[in-house]
What does this fold into?
Amino acid sequence: MATYPVNMAIKPDVFAFFDAATNTISYIVKDPDSSACAIVDSVMDIDYAAGRITFDHADELIRTVIDKGLQLEWIIETHVHADHLSAAPYIQEKLGGKIGVGSKITVVQDTFGKVFNEGTEFQRDGSQFDALFEDGDTYMIGNMQAYAMYTPGHTPACMVHVMGDAAFVGDTLFMPDGGSARADFPGGDAGVLYDSIQKVLALPDETRLFMCHDYGPNGRDIAWETSVAEEKTHNIHVGGGKTKEEFVKFRTERDATLAMPNLIIPSLQVNMRAGEVPKDPDGNPMLKVPVNAL
It folds into this structure.
């Protein structure tokens, strides 16, 4: 039987918050034996057409932490999201906590630093974040140990965070009827994604899996929690023993038909900075639009 660096008999309290504008689910994860908690994959609201940023979604998370008397210790990013903006620094200013991401953020920063023609003032060493996780690194949320599992393929910096019996999978997996995320962004790889999914599916069958996105395929209600057993049996892209070759062929052909996410241009600029909006030489918040670069 496989062993894991955390006690998977611990059952953290998980509170989910769905953002309809980006189909993102953010989470507050509470240590059952203390008031300590983590926030996973927060959302900062943007009206892209108007160039207006607001914080309604983040404020709901903040209110919940305060109302429940919790102490925020970690603000976790499962990866550099291309479809929504992180509210991590806004939440940190209100509640404290450390912002953590996978150490391969440096690869993403290097890649998209070039795409957005960032100058030398943009550091590409991950220093915008408080913690850079390597595969297998552990950290504490109160009395509950958590660990980071490196799961590249969708992006080079994706990680699944396992907290007790709960795993927050980012875009490594979708609900069983949603399958998997695309692998055609710079640094993505369908074969690598398949291997990463197998790492997740090697967790105990009863492990609770929490999605970062759901789109309600075939008109069903939005959902975000499933299990390893359900994914292994029913996931339409990798379940039922589908081979790596089958997955790569399907994923590659499907990705070729997909448009870029609506918010990819602002999201990448903000998220590779740990949620900070870039500024122009006069210190004003400003986003760039690279032409024919994505």
User: Anything to note?
Assistant: The mean pLDDT is 95. The two ends are 44 Å apart (CA to CA). Helices lie at 56-67, 88-95, 105-115, 190-201, 228-234, 244-255, 264-271.
